[in-house]
Task: structure prediction
Amino acid sequence: MEPVQCGGRSTQILPTSVLDRHYILQSVTNYPTKANTTIGITTSKDHTDVLVNLSTGNNNVSTISFDNLTYHAGEIIHDQLDSFQIMWLKCQSEIFRIDIKSSDPIAVFYGQDGGVGRQLLPVSRWGKHFISFPISETADTIQITGNTQLHYYCT
Result:
């Protein structure tokens, strides 16, 4: 079977068996370019209610545009999706925390400048143990998402 050409970007896609109803997108800093961030949410079930809660815990939370409306920190965006319909959210600057909940399992993707290059792992799949290595010879920024106390070792 030949691969299907869909464009110039790629992403890792998680199996539907790991999808769930609760996601958190936090501390996405558009370093170094301050690019626009795009969030895409989809489902395979009809009549899936989606609630997007914009955190009030940080002064850097930007506004988010959805369906030609602008939302601010502390506001909740509500939409109902049918199977394979996409809810597109667009924002600028830094996102501190966005809490996404739904009535049925959903897939959540995010990226910069119109691309959605990363799929979020649902909160139910967050781990407690992580491993990494230096990505470059200059300073690296590693974001760890989890509900756990962090202990780290650098060599």
The chain is about 0% helix and 40% strand. Residues 37 and 112 are 4 Å apart (CA to CA). The chain has a mean pLDDT of 79. Strands lie at 20-28, 37-43, 48-54, 64-66, 69-71, 76-81, 86-91, 95-112, 118-119.
